[in-house]
Each structure stands twice: as structure tokens, then as C-alpha cells.
């Protein structure tokens, strides 16, 4: 199991985004440490607003946007209603909804997907699996 822990600049703002807009559930939190553990359809992540300088693990300076160079792929059961909820909340996708097929050996795997940036710039690629099919010969 891999559970990313994302530093955020404002835990309350991030919790509003993840819980109230996207529908993640709060598994547990440690308010005194500005920490929360969230779940969404089997995907988990941790959020932390750094508050103890002796407990901040950084490989470089923490500058906005925090999420440079990373995107998290999160599978959802039904991506179209989820996308509609995101749009109706007034959020603008980083990458609009698309159907994309990725080659994997002798097959292609399909995703219906879109990408959304969280308040700190972490990219979240929500997708619905469209299955696999053989690669067409050229």
C-alpha cells in the first residue's frame, strides 16, 4: 500500500476542497498537529500543514505550487457524475475530460479521465477504467 502525505499551506482550505467538494471522507485527524487522513473509493492520502520545524521532511524549499512534477491517479467508479460535481462546484479542471488509451505490451488500456489541481497545486487525475483491448496491427 502506498499512501502519499501532502504538505498543504492551509489545512482547513484543503479539507474543504477534499471533503466538501470532492467527497473524500475523514478517517481520522490530529488537529494539534494539523494532520488529516482521508479516503475516497479505496484511495487514501494524508494532508499536513507543517507546524513543527523539527518534523518537516523536505528535499528542497517548500514553495507554491507545492505539487510541482507529480500527479496522483485516482480510480473512481463513475467519472462522469464526479466530473459534473466538480464543474458544478465552480472548479476548473487542469485538463478537461478525455478518453485516452495507453499501450501496455500487446494491449491498450482505456481511461476516461480528467485532471484537477488541488489548492496547493497537486494534480489529481481521476479516471474510470474502460478496459483493455488488443493493439491494432499497423
How would you describe this structure in keywords?
15% helix, 138 residues, alpha/beta, globular, 2 helices, single chain, 4-stranded mixed beta sheet
What is this structure, in a nutshell?
This protein is α/β, with parallel strands linked by helices.
Would you kindly provide a written description of the structure presented here, covering whatever features stand out?
- The strands form two sheets. This protein has a four-stranded mixed β-sheet, with helices on one face. It has a four-stranded mixed β-sheet with strand order 5-8-7-6, covered by helices on one side.
- It has helices spanning 11-21, 79-88, and strands at 5-7, 25-30, 35-40, 43-48, 71-75, 95-104, 107-117, 123-134.
- 20% of the residues are buried.
- By secondary structure, the chain is of the alpha/beta class.
Main structural class: alpha/beta
Instruction: Give the overall shape.
Output: globular
Total of DSSP H or I helical runs spanning 4+ residues: 2
- What is the averaged pLDDT score? 90
The total of beta strands comes to: 8
Largest sheet: 4 strands, mixed
Strand proportion: 35-45%
Strand order of the largest sheet: 1-4-3-2
Q: What separation lies between the terminal Cα atoms?
A: 38 Å
- Taken in chain order, the helices and strands follow as EHEEEEHEEE
The share of residues in helices is 10-25%
As residue ranges, the low-confidence spans are: none
Gyration radius (Cα, Å) is 17 Å
Amino acid at each position: 500500500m502506498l499512501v502519499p502525505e501532502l504538505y498543504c499551506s492551509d489545512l482547513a482550505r484543503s479539507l474543504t476542497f477534499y471533503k466538501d467538494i470532492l467527497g473524500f471522507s475523514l478517517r481520522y485527524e490530529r488537529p494539534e498537529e494539523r494532520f488529516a487522513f482521508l479516503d475516497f473509493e479505496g484511495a487514501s492520502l494524508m494532508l499536513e500543514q507543517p507546524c513543527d520545524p523539527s518534523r518537516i521532511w523536505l528535499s528542497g524549499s517548500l514553495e507554491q505550487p507545492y505539487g510541482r512534477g507529480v500527479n496522483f491517479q485516482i480510480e473512481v467508479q463513475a467519472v462522469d457524475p464526479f466530473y459534473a460535481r466538480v464543474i458544478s462546484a465552480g472548479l476548473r479542471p487542469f485538463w478537461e475530460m478525455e478518453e485516452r488509451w495507453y499501450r501496455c505490451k500487446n494491449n491498450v488500456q482505456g481511461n476516461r479521465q480528467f485532471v484537477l489541481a488541488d489548492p496547493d497545486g497537486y494534480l489529481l487525475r481521476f479516471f474510470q477504467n474502460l478496459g483493455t483491448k488488443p493493439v491494432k496491427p499497423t
